[in-house]
């Protein structure tokens, strides 16, 4: 095949047009020639792999074999193209191959849109097209049509067309209509239409079709899902309206309606300013009703919930940052409104609105927070409004510009001023007059001064002194009225200071055992002992005026109490202490030969990531000088099993009748070092198909080729306290979840747990997913419990047709009206 490529500019066409008019002037019927001339205002580029034939008599140009025409911003490619200068048209079509299959289908590209067809007739004067058997992509969908007219404004008119989001050669489904109008980049409109599966019509008929095709956001209705609730009746859920306010914000309004009178309203506002800030605000209000007014079982519960997230781009102002994460509402909202699983299983919600300010070229920074937390079980709300902290980063006041690294040059100090205004109250009393008297507030100043010194190159000595001062705006006064102790609050400014000094000495000791044979090369033990001493004066002495005495019974017995007993930052400590503290941390590592590396490289494995033992001895205490012994351990096995262990041991025997200790050591009485007081163990197993990558030597394939993951979490809390063993409190919990991709199309997921007290399964959820190419099937089943329900959804994947779905819901839950 000879390759010919021709690029003919406007001058050639002008000469050709003049030559043809001159040569055949006597044969032309001038009544059929339009006024004006046939001159073009731009060049035409032509290309063909096989041949280009010019028919001067009929004023036509024929292009054969991967032909291409380009005129202005219009490009046409096809197996065969013909230019007709008489009609000012370009005709493009495919050809048949040896097996009678169409090849070289015409493709017309104009501006940013393009489509494929069997035949295209294009008028390069009017820019109109007549197309047969078209296939074009609009947004995330495809339009197929038998006969199409393309107007000069790029609007397409289809006769007998299909709209689908399926990219298969033969679409699995489509919305079919005799009339379709396409405005590229804006919308697709159809006349009466019906749904087809594999070109088979269904009885699902639409009076018209409207499909937004705008890259910009557009407003529209949100189609609700329907179902039935055993307690609330039939329902329509998540129906509403979407409104794009502008390029920076959009608003979604949704609602739920139940046949027995309950309803729910949800609004969601999203906003974003590029390179500045972004966030979302979600407000929900629910009116949950059971039975009807006048009936004895009638109940009404109103719930609300607020979510607000706001973040600021750090580049906007590195020295000033504002952020928000608010989660607040009525305690029963997520129980009565079947929201996501994590919200339902959580019994605490927290919020924080923060402002952080830095002053450039200074050590100072400011942090201000509005904090909130609530427990949905106890219905207690904690607020910090506000919480302010002014910090000075560590400075070295004695360090010279040309440092000689002298010991006093390493002395550093920091400063922190903290202020709080807190309240902890039942949610039902939050907005009452009673809540105003429940606020606790105060200011605390702390100045730590410390340094570090090297001794004999192996020991590190770190002395420090800490100053603390508290400011309160009230204090308490206790009096005995003959029957009980009466506590009064006195509103006046109260200040108190305290200090302590300490010094620590630490080092690292390495132990190594090497093996000449076997896979294990060596075992290393890293021992990090830390010995410290701290001293704190007795600030309950009369000279400080921080403590007073109060009579507590008719016998005249008196006790000391702090006038800042209810202070938010506590009060100066009572009792002099001189503690010797011991902390020993251990790390065990093993070095083995690496299987993957043939160069005999070695691999490190941690046997124990941490084994920590700590205790202290108070030199100035008259009895019970030893503190509890704390033992903590942490390790990870084969990168899949995490084990954490912590425990507390009491070195003194206990008085079970009075629930206190006796100044007798366990080793002297019971021949044991200490008595177990409490322990906490957590075991987490996280495995997946990549955790076991053992190869089959026969076919060199992985034994496990199905993607999956499995997670187990077990927790044990044992608390004996001062009581005998039969009164020990033990709490156990087990949670497990997993996912498996059975095939490329099928996925299965589950989550559950086990309650050791009730000896039954906890919240359980099963999820099944099936990829149906352009559709998807999702099934969620909660077999028992308060949220017992199932949801079956079959929907189109593409966002533009997400409301084309079948959804079946059923639940058996009843609202909590308490």
Task: Write up what this structure looks like.
The protein has 818 residues and is mainly beta. Among the domains are: 200 residues, Sandwich (lipopolysaccharide transport protein A fold); 184 residues, no CATH class; 170 residues, no CATH class. The chain has a 27-stranded mixed beta barrel. The chain has a six-stranded antiparallel beta barrel with strand order 5-6-11-12-10-9. It has a two-stranded antiparallel ribbon with strand order 7-8. The radius of gyration is 40 Å and the shape is elongated. It starts with a strand and ends in a 7-residue tail after the last strand. The N terminus is likely disordered.
Task: Provide the fold topology.
Blueprint: E1 4-8, H1 10-23, E2 44-48, E3 51-55, E4 60-71, E5 74-84, E6 89-93, E7 95-96, E8 102-103, E9 107-110, E10 113-116, E11 119-123, E12 129-138, E13 141-150, E14 156-164, E15 173-183, E16 187-190, E17 193-197, E18 200-206, E19 209-212, E20 220-222, E21 225-229, E22 233-246, E23 249-258, E24 263-273, E25 277-290, E26 299-312, E27 320-329, H2 333-336, H3 341-345, E28 348-358, E29 364-375, E30 380-395, E31 412-426, E32 440-450, E33 453-455, E34 459-472, E35 475-480, E36 485-490, E37 494-506, E38 509-514, E39 520-536, E40 547-551, E41 558-562, E42 577-593, E43 602-618, E44 629-637, E45 641-650, E46 652-655, E47 660-665, H4 666-669, E48 675-688, E49 708-719, E50 729-740, E51 746-755, E52 760-761, E53 765-772, E54 775-782, E55 789-796, E56 805-811
Parallel strand pairs: 21-56
Antiparallel strand pairs: 1-2, 2-4, 3-4, 4-5, 5-6, 5-9, 6-11, 7-8, 9-10, 10-12, 11-12, 12-13, 13-14, 14-15, 15-16, 15-17, 16-19, 17-18, 20-22, 21-22, 22-23, 23-24, 24-25, 25-26, 26-27, 27-28, 28-29, 29-30, 30-31, 31-32, 32-34, 33-34, 34-37, 35-36, 37-39, 38-39, 39-42, 40-41, 42-43, 43-44, ...
């Amino acid at each position: 095949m000879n390759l010919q490529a021709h690029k003919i500019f406007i001058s050639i066409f002008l000469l050709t047009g003049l030559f043809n008019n001159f040569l055949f002037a006597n044969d032309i019927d001038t009544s059929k020639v339009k006024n004006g001339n046939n001159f073009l205002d731009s060049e035409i580029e032509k290309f063909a792999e096989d041949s280009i034939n010019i028919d001067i008599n009929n004023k036509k140009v024929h292009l054969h074999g991967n032909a291409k025409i380009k005129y202005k911003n219009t490009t046409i490619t096809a197996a065969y193209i013909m230019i007709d200068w008489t009609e000012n048209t370009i005709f493009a079509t495919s050809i048949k191959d040896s097996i009678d299959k169409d090849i070289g289908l015409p493709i017309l590209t104009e501006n940013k849109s393009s489509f494929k067809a069997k035949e295209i007739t294009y008028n390069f004067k009017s820019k109109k097209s007549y197309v047969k058997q078209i296939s074009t992509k609009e947004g995330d969908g495809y339009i197929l049509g038998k006969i199409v007219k393309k107007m000069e404004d790029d609007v397409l008119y289809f006769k007998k067309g299909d709209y689908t989001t399926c990219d298969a050669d033969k679409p699995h489904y489509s919305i079919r209509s005799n009339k379709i109008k396409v405005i590229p980049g804006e919308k697709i409109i159809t006349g009466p239409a019906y749904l087809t599966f594999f070109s088979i019509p269904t009885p699902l008929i639409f009076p018209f079709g409207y499909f937004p095709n705008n890259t910009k956001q557009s407003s529209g209705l949100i189609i609700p899902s329907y179902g039935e609730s055993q307690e609330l009746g039939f329902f329509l859920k998540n129906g509403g309206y979407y409104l794009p306010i502008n390029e920076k914000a959009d608003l979604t309004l949704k609602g739920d309606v139940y046949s027995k009178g309950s309803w729910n309203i949800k609004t969601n506002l999203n906003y974003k300013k590029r390179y500045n800030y972004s966030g979302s605000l979600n407000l929900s209000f629910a009116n949950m009703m059971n039975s009807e007014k006048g009936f004895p079982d009638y109940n009404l519960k109103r719930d609300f919930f607020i979510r607000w997230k706001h973040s600021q781009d750090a580049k906007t102002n590195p020295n000033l940052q504002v952020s928000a994460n608010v989660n607040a509402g009525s305690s029963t909202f997520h129980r009565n409104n079947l929201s996501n699983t994590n919200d339902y299983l959580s019994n605490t919600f927290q919020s924080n609105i923060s402002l952080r300010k830095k002053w450039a070229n200074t050590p100072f920074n400011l942090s201000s927070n509005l904090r909130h937390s609530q427990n949905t079980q106890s219905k207690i709300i904690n607020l910090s409004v506000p919480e302010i902290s002014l910090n000075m980063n560590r400075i070295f006041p004695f360090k010279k510009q040309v440092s000689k690294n002298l010991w006093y040059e390493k002395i550093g100090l920091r400063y922190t001023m903290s202020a709080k205004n807190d309240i902890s109250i039942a949610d039902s009393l939050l907005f009452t007059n009673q809540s105003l008297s429940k606020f606790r507030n105060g200011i605390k100043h702390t100045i730590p001064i410390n340094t570090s010194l090297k001794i004999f190159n192996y020991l590190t000595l770190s002395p420090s002194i800490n100053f603390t001062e508290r400011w309160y705006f009230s204090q308490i006064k206790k009096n005995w009225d003959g029957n009980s102790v009466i506590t009064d609050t006195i509103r006046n400014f109260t200040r108190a200071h305290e200090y302590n000094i300490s010094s620590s000495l630490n080092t690292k000791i390495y132990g190594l055992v090497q093996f000449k044979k076997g896979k294990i090369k060596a075992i290393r033990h890293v021992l990090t002992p830390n010995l410290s001493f701290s001293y704190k004066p007795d600030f309950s002495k009369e000279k400080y005026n921080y403590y007073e005495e109060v009579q507590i019974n008719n016998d005249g017995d008196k006790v000391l109490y702090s006038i800042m007993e209810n202070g938010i930052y506590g009060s100066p400590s009572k009792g002099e202490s001189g503690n010797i503290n011991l902390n020993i941390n251990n790390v065990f590592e093993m070095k083995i030969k690496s299987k993957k590396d043939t160069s005999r490289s070695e691999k490190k494995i941690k046997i124990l990531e941490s084994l920590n033992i700590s205790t202290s001895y108070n030199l100035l205490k008259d009895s019970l000088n030893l503190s509890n012994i704390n033992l903590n351990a942490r390790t990870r096995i084969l990168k899949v099993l995490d084990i954490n262990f912590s425990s507390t041991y009491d070195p003194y025997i206990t008085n079970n009748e009075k629930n206190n200790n006796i100044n007798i050591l366990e080793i002297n009485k019971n021949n044991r070092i200490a008595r177990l007081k409490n322990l906490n163990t957590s075991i987490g197993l996280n495995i997946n198909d990549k955790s076991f990558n053992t190869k089959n030597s026969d076919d060199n394939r992985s034994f496990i080729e199905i993607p999956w993951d499995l997670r187990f979490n077990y927790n044990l809390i044992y608390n004996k306290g001062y009581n005998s063993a039969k009164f020990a409190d033990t709490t156990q919990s087990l949670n497990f979840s997993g996912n498996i991709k059975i095939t490329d199309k099928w996925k299965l997921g589950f989550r559950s747990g086990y309650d050791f007290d009730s000896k039954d399964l906890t919240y359980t959820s099963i999820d099944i997913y099936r990829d149906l190419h352009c559709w998807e099937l999702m099934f969620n089943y909660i077999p028992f419990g308060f949220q017992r329900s199932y949801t079956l959804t079959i929907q189109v994947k593409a966002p533009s047709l997400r409301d084309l779905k079948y959804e079946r819901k059923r639940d058996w839950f009843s609202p909590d009206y308490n």
